[in-house]
Structure formats: structure tokens, C-alpha cells
Amino acid sequence: MTTGHGQTPTDDGVPGGAAAPPGVSRRGMLSGALLAGLGGAVVGAAGGGSAAWAMATSDAATVDDTDTVDLDRSYPYYGTGHQGGIETQPQRHTVFMTFTLADTATKSSLQTLLARWSAAAAVLQQGNSVGAVQPSNGVAPPGDTGEAAGLSPASLTVTIGLGPTLFDDRFGLAPHKPAAFSALPTLNGDTLDPKFTGGDLSVQACADDPQVCYHAVRNLARLGRSVVTPFWAVLGFGRASAGPGQQTPRNLLGFKDGTRNIQTDQQYSEFVWVQNGDQPWMEGGTYQVVRKIRMLLETWDTDRVGNQQQIIGRHKEEGSPLSGAHEMDTPNFAAKTSTGDPVIDPVSHVALAARENNGGMMIRRRSYNYTDGLDANGELNAGLLFIAYQNDPQHFVQLQNRLGAHDLLNEYIRHVGSAIFAVPPAPEKGHYLAQQLFTAS
Ligand code: HEM
């Protein structure tokens, strides 16, 4: 392996190259450039948006100093207990791709694939290339596709998941399938397109530079070419979730998303990491649920803000619950108006989803906005790439069945894609992802 993005030596034993370019740590600069691009697109397509633009720019101006992008930051891949990209502070971009295994794939080719992907992920997360960008032998194809040469690691994390289909009769893995793990049943509100549904494997690459995400997924796909074929993919931007010290970002409905999320170690331990499960290879792992949710943005954009707030159960600009004044105020679902009506509509999105109304249960949401441009009718084809991590897939099933049946938001969204994956813990150095699954007797 040779180095490419210009990083110093790493604990993965990859030799270093020239010093990396200095990182950018001024959020105003990055978010300003992003908003300029998006603001222009919105004004052009919908003929409006100046109020949203004013709100977004004033928001960026008040950003906390701790919420910065450091493109030089890198995360180790091996020995971290859990895979990255779950508890990791949400980076600004993702490329999420699912794969199907070739008919000729065997248990051993699957093992080799996971070993190669693990080694590549470790190298990529340090900002290095997976092979020579320009081999000295001019007739050989490059070992790395090259588009990230010279770029910093940008906090890249590569999260790899195994689909329920790996436990069918093809690879002899059925005895090691966790009892809790199977394809998602049909859920309330499903309008799924088979083109965006299922997959044998998933790769979620998150980073603060979209080119770094794309490079990572593209090179994993290339490394696996004889064994896997890319199935469906989504490019996500504008992280719709926040970690400690990060400002809550906004989804494409214009609402803050990620305010009430899993944050503490205790919550991760209780709701995210598999502990004392029935399969040792999944100890410290979790289950990834991915839903591609299209938003009917043109319809939403004609709705009164009061109605939008009733649907979500929160104020639009501040993000506070309708029962409070500040974003972090705990919603009071018992609060009544002077006429005796609930302040937060019982079928608003947050009332249906909140832990107070679901027996205390929580999920770790780590979503991204996405756009596929325009649809055949010239309408904005965009929405939320909803990604949730939980130690019991039934938690998601329970929530989505409730939301799919009653949520006021349903008028404005369509669940068009769906998949679930088992996400094993991170391998130790010298090992590869899910190795224990293959060596279990
Ligand atoms: C396009 C689809 C969706 C949009 C636009 C959306 C938007 C939001 C917004 C604006 C909030 C309030 C801020 C916050 O606390 O994060 C929220 C909260 C939440 N959402 Fe969603 N959401 C969507 C889909 C889903 C789905 C599919 C689920 C799970 C099945 C879900 C579960 C939750 C939960 C658990 C909360 C926290 C509620 C609380 O504790 O107050 N959301 N969502």
C-alpha cells in the first residue's frame, strides 16, 4: 500500500507521506459556502426562500466555537470497541451504499471481502490511499482511484453492516443469526420502491468532506468487484443529528432535527449496544435501520408555519417544544391551552415518537438530508436519509408502526427505501470485521 492523502505515519502501520494541508476550522466559512449553493437552488426552483435564507445566515452567525470542522481530524478503525459512525460526532456528509453478493460468492470469498474492506477502511480513515494512485509501471491500473489524493482525513468513518440475507442457506451462517435479526416486516406507511430496498451488505462512509466519503465507498466497491455489486446508494448532506457540543442542524423541512437523541453512555449502553445477546460475534455491535424518506417539499412549502409547527410539535426557528421557549426544554405533553386542548398535538411527530410516550424507549438517530435532483415531473426529489441504530430492531418497528399509522407528518413524507443491517463491533488490529462469525463452530 502507498500513501496518498498526505498523512503522517499512523497506528495502522501505514507509512506516511508529505504533511497534510492545514485543516479548515471555521464553520462560518464552510456553512456559508454550502448555504450559498443551496439558497441559490431553492430560489431558482421554488421562486422564494429569502426568509429561510435570512434565518439560516443569522443562525450560522451565532454558531458556537466548539462546533467546528477540523479536516485534519482522523479516527482509528481498529480496537475502538464499537464501529465508528454511530456514536461519532456526526460529520457533515455521508455516502451510503448497499451491495448484493454475486451468485458465485462463497463463505470464503465473503470472509476475504470483509478482511480487505477492514484493511482498506483502516487506511482510508487515516487519510491514506488504498494503493498507488500513479503506479510506476505505466501499464498497470492505479491501485487507488485518486480523487482524494491531497485531501485530509476529514473525520472519515466507515461503518460496515451485514444484511439478514447473509444468513440464508448460501454460506452456512444460519446457526449464527441473532434471534432479533431478520428483514423488516411491512410497516405502516411503507410505499417502498424495490430499487431502494434491502441489500446483502451496507457501507456508510461519513466525513466532513463529501469527496472523502465518495472516494471511500468507491474504492471499497472497486476492491470487492468480483464478489459484490453496488445495489442502491444515497449521497447525504447537512447532518440531521447532533453530538455533544454541536449545534442542532436542520432537515429539509426547515426544522431542527436531532434535539432529543441518544447522547449519554448510559443511554448508549441501554439502547444501542448489543449486550448479553445470543451471538458472541455481535457483542458490542448494533442494528442499523436505513429509510430513504422522500419529502413532498412543494406541498410542505405552501403550508402555514403554524400548521407545520403543530405537525412536528415544535417551534420552527428555535426548535423548542410547543410547550416551552427553549430548544432543550423538556416537552410537556400534558400542557393544555386556555381552551383545554393539548399544547402539543398527541398525533404530532414528537408526541408519537418521544420516549415519554413509548415506555422510555429511545433510538440513536443519525440521519442526513439527501437530494436526487428533480423527478420526472420537475418536482424536488429530496428528503431524509433516516439512519437509526438500536440494540433491538423491534424498537424501530414499534416506533415506525406508530408513526406510520398516526403521524400528522405522513401527509408530507413517503418512505421509499428501507434496509436493516447487523453492525458488528470494530475488529482488533490483526483481525477483520465479523471474524468471529466465520470462526464460530
Ligand atoms: C422525513 C422523516 C422525518 C422527519 C422530517 C423527522 C423530523 C423530526 C424532528 C424535526 C424532530 C424534533 C427534533 C428532535 O428531537 O430531534 C424529530 C424527533 C424525533 N423523531 Fe423524527 N423525523 C422523521 C422520521 C422519523 C422516523 C422514521 C422515526 C422513527 C421511526 C423518527 C423518530 C424520532 C424520534 C424518536 C424523535 C425524538 C422525539 C422526542 O423525544 O421528542 N423520526 N423528528
UniProtKB/TrEMBL annotation:
Key word Heme present: yes
- Give residue ranges for domain Dyp-type peroxidase C-terminal: 248-426
A single GO molecular-function term is: heme binding
Skewed-composition ranges (Polar residues):
1-10
Task: Report the InterPro entries cross-referenced here.
Answer: Dimeric_a/b-barrel (IPR011008), Dyp_perox_C (IPR048328), Dyp_perox_N (IPR048327), Dyp_peroxidase (IPR006314), EfeB/EfeN (IPR006313), TAT_signal (IPR006311)
Q: How is the cofactor bound?
A: Binds 1 heme b (iron(II)-protoporphyrin IX) group non-covalently per subunit.
Q: Which Pfam families match?
A: Dyp_perox_C, Dyp_perox_N
According to the UniProt record, where is the region Disordered?
Answer: 1-23
Q: What is its EC number?
A: 1.11.1.-
The coenzyme or cofactor needed here is: heme b
Q: Name one GO cellular component term.
A: cytosol
**UniProt keywords, alphabetically:** Heme, Iron, Lyase, Metal-binding, Oxidoreductase, Peroxidase, Signal
Q: Per the database record, which ranges form the Dyp-type peroxidase N-terminal domain?
A: 83-237
- What family classification does the UniProt entry report for this protein? Belongs to the DyP-type peroxidase family.
Q: Per its record, how is this protein called by name?
A: Deferrochelatase
- Protein source organism: Mycolicibacterium madagascariense
Instruction: Cite the source lineage.
Output: Bacteria, Bacillati, Actinomycetota, Actinomycetes, Mycobacteriales
